[in-house]
Every structure is written in structure tokens, then in C-alpha cells.
Amino acid sequence: MTTRRKKEKPFEPGTVPVPGGLLDWGDPRHFHSWQDRPCALCRQATRMRSHSGEPAHKVCAESWIAANPTEARLGRFANDAQAKRRDTGHA
Q1: Number of other CB atoms surrounding residue 85 within 10 Å
Q2: pLDDT tens, 10-60?
Q3: What 8-state DSSP symbol labels residue 14?
Q4: Closest CA to 58 of 84, 12, 27, 35
């Protein structure tokens, strides 16, 4: 009897940080505690994943954005989408 693991779907990315900026990867879905894979950029083992599931260290992704500002605008690596704020009417 084989057990199948449910494949996680990619999640919605937010904005791309400016070159030299830091990525906001606070969502726990960026971390896979059960599987190391080679980082797509440095080839060292990582449990971090981009929004699309691509293995990448956060610092490698930030360096890639700084080195490739034009390509970075296409959103290969992006911040977590921020929850929309509700207007409560308070000042």
C-alpha cells in the first residue's frame, strides 16, 4: 500500500522588492521541513522555497534581484502578499 502526499499548490506572491531590498518571506509555506533541495541559484541544499515552489535561499533570491533588476520585475522572487487592510473608520 503506497501513501501519496498531497502536493502543495504555489501561493500568491506580493510585490517585488527594490534591488538591494529584503524579501518578506514570513509565510511558513516558504519552509519545507522534510525535504532539502539544491538552491536554484547557489546549488547548496535548502529547505526554503519561493512562491512557485522553486528551491532558493532567501539571501540568494535577494542577491539575484539586486543583480538582475530588469528580470526581477517579472516576479521570479517576490514578497508575501499582504492581507488587505480593512478601513475601520478610526483616525
Answers
A1: 6
A2: 678 999 999 999 999 999 999 988 899 999 999 999 999 999 999 999 999
A3: -
A4: 27
